[in-house]
Amino acid sequence: MGIEGPVINYGGAIIMDTRTDRPIYTTQIPGEMVQDILSLAANRKMHVHLYQGDAVVYEKPSQYSEAYVSRLGLPHWADPAIRDKQWQDVPKILIITEDEKAKELIPVLQKKYAGKLKISGSSAGYIEFNHVSAHKGSAAAILAEQLGISPAQTVAVGDNSLDMEMIQWAGLGCAVGNAQPDILAAADLVLPTCGDMAVAHLIDTVLLKG
């Protein structure tokens, strides 16, 4: 998009400055938790993707990994020894599985890792793990403070559970029309769907007229 400046990545785990390609803020999953998640995925025969910098590491290629990295255009590689290594500096882990299995597991894992990890699901079949303090709301708050902007001066737009804290934190929290039901319920304003130019609608009818 050619946008330069700070960007919140990995569900709020990292704030990157695209002008310098350097992180402004980072959180990492503790090493022992990384090993626990890798074992969990192996025991349940689920496909796990571990982030290192802006790259994705997985045990072996699969339809899930190929589709994921192809869609996002991420650097990636397979590491058959992924479960045998002591990983450091891991901002996010993604498990991809069948949608119904993910829906069943997310609340179970949220209870199991309460106070230890932030667990959410942004898309069908996704189970996403971050540091317990990492979410888009906390990242937005940190960035706003650095820029001298109050919450009342901010606007957030989202569509899935990764966006919940950000929508709740922002002065104006918006959901696109095709957002998940809980996001629609939490929003101050519901916009048209993504396909109907939701952000353009927000800018033209709310922000520029405000």
Automatic annotation (TrEMBL):
Stored InterPro entries: HAD-like_sf (IPR036412), HAD_sf (IPR023214)
One Pfam family this sequence matches: Hydrolase_3
Keyword match Transferase: no
EC number: 3.1.3.-
Keyword Hydrolase applies: yes
Any GO CC annotation of this UniProt entry: cytosol
EC category name: hydrolase
Molecular function terms from GO: magnesium ion binding; phosphatase activity
Keywords: Hydrolase
Protein name per the record: Putative phosphatase
